[in-house]
What does this fold into?
Amino acid sequence: MNSGSNLTPSAAGERRQYADPIVAAESDVDLLAGLLADAGRIVSFTGAGISTESGIPDYRGPGGVWSTGKPPTLDDFLTNEAARLEYWERRRTGYRQMAAVEPNGGHRALVELERSGRLLGTITQNIDGLHQKAGADPDRVVELHGTAHAVRCLSCGTVWPASEIQEWLERTTGEPRCQVCGGILRSATVLFGEAMPVEPLRRAIAFAQEADLMLVIGSSLVVQPAARLPLIAVRAGARLAMINRESTPLDRLADLVVRGDAGRTLATATGLALAWEPFRSYATG
It folds into this structure.
């Protein structure tokens, strides 16, 4: 595994080699804790890997959409009634299961960092809402790919809480339609091949440019343009730390790469970083 023994970008290529365990190497967790303790403007960038520990499949992994069915596209919704009916049938049985999923230690650790004043915000590729459910300030969470907890009309843009549409789905059969204009409905998420909304991307870039530490958690960093955000942060002067099970195209730029489960690794490192603060304040006081 690749792990930074020096915490400067210029030495990011000099890595120690480890096996690829589920539990992160203790020395790497200590290094991560040091980066968290030194930072005052952390921005987290989260992908599917932080939510798999809560039981939500990675869409690229076993049980994800790539392995269980064809990823939905915008054209499917606009032109194919059968595809829409299939989608709503899956959602009729699956939404409440997803809504019942609970955040894990990784989500909760980010909330601790936010409440400590160190975390500016979270940029997420996930649509599950677990950051907010863990207690994150919704105004500090940028959902690049939208949210599964809202449904919007493709014609007039009216948005409903997903729970309201779910109640309709459980009372009847068929495809729900917009109660305002009769238009086609779908979840308020970015579908495959669809352009990312401008405003979330603008906010994410602003966060990245302000960060002094970009913390990537559970993202493969292959989906563009979101995958460019850590690079934007580095070019603006931020350090880059990653917690991932697998390598990414940006590992070579990172100050630290930790191989391990996101929840356990981040929770441990955050606990250490916050525990050091009273001693750091005393030493510098």
In short: Confidence is low (pLDDT under 50) at residues 1-22, 60-68, 281-285.
